[in-house]
Hints:
Elements: H1 2-10, H2 13-32, H3 38-41, H4 45-52, H5 67-80, H6 84-108, H7 113-126, H8 136-157, H9 161-174, H10 181-199, H11 203-225, H12 230-251, H13 256-259, H14 264-283, H15 291-312, H16 322-336, H17 342-366, E1 382-383, E2 395-396, H18 405-421, E3 426-429, H19 435-439, H20 465-478, E4 483-486, H21 492-495, E5 503-509, E6 512-517
Parallel strand pairs: 3-4
Antiparallel strand pairs: 1-2, 4-6, 5-6
Helix pairs in contact: 2-6, 2-7, 4-5, 5-6, 6-7, 6-8, 7-16, 7-17, 8-9, 8-10, 8-15, 9-11, 10-15, 14-15, 14-16, 16-17
Amino acid sequence: MFLKKITNFLTNDKFLLFIIFFISFLLNKYYANFGVFPIDTFFHFDSGFRVLNGEYPVKDFWVVSGILVDYLEAFFFYIFGVSWKTHVFHSSFINGIITLATFFVLRSFQFNKFFSFLYSFFFCVLAYPPSGTPFVDHHAAFFSLLGIYSFILALKKNKNFYWILMPIFIGLSFFSKQVPSGYLVLPLGLITVFYSIVKKDLNPIIYAFVGSLVFVFIVILIGAIQEISLNEFLIQYIYYPQTFGGNRLSNFSFTFNSVIVQYKFIYFALVPLIFLNIYNLIINKNYIKEKKFFIFLVILFYSLSLIFHQMLTKNQIFIYFLCPLLLAFLKIYLSEDIVKFKTVSFLIILVFAFFITGKYHLRFNEGKKFHELSSTNLNLSKKASLIDKKFSGLKWITPSFKDSPEIEINFLNETLKILLEDSQKKMVLTNYLFFSTLMNERLYAPSRSQTLDGMSFPIRGNKYYSEYKNYFLKIIKNNKIQVIYLISSNDRFVYDYLDKTCINKHSFTERLKKFELNKSCF
């Protein structure tokens, strides 16, 4: 009797939910602590600190994505304190939540508890751990997935509440990054309308519209409270990103390797699911009206939107979590249909899921490929607390100094010392996105990151170049900036936007420069 109670407790859904969340959280937390790619690893570190201290995206620094991630980072900093550990807690929590949701959705299909747990585990290994730290693409992908899950649960549970949640999660995804939600919103809307027509039920449309209104109202309210200009928001977050997004699409080379080979294992999971549903449409004329067909459609469009997004992005591939997710749904669809050799099929799917998870775990989690540390000996890393105690727990090593991380640490410490000793009103331009946080000081960077590829802010030749230049100058004037520090070897970050006759340059090293501003020019 006692053993039966223990067994029932250990196999209870609530206990399994807790365990899978706990595993997902700890797994991401562990791998986040090894190695650094500064611009990506700390992408929301300083900006989260800035939001916490009353500086807001759009209004106080130029953004092209990641608004929601900045606010979430600020929220976690407010609750747990400003530190590396909190930074990692943020992404680990998201990994836990999306994995927990995955388990919950799989169980809604009456999917076996063991397999629901196992495929959720495979999913969590490839979800956030490849990045480890908060990043726009991951947040956007997972909030979109929560929107897809809301659609699925609305059908499975017959509860209108999920129709309200669906557009809210898609909206949260959009404010993390414009895509993949931008690709997904139209097909998801059309599928919802089509479902309402087929079922002769207007509730999906009505409640999804209510959810949309609630989200829009909250966004407008926050914008009004923080006095964020609608025009500046449209330029920074909507119009300007279209300029480099369009260029990426027009310049993209659609080759067999770029479209098929790189995502072959995702296709291996997706294509059988497509064929199975086509087969069901052929043998059953009413299949087009069944809920499982609509669920297949949203899974299909979500997968395609992520693949298309990944093809156009310049980041490392991060969407391999689709493999175990799609394989789990393939197993569900096979188990609900009369298919020969089910046992063999299930075994093949399981072995394939295990193989894919192991393969990409070794490449991205152990090998740290997402942060370009594949060829790096992580054993050479140093304690990041040598820079600041806020970085306690992080092992510092970067691709730029993979053989001698202590040189980079010394450079950062020397730079910090110089900045702290300068009592002037200063602006710091750098891709080490943590100086404001470590110094506990406003450093007025006009954008979150500093790159000259057009991904951070408009560069010369872009139609919004003058808009950004004026934005840059406004920050200097309004905040009475006296000096600009540039932590980069490229002076264009300053000279492309400010008149050289108004600047007096002083170089500490090739990578650290000081530009004193002539008051009469500003």
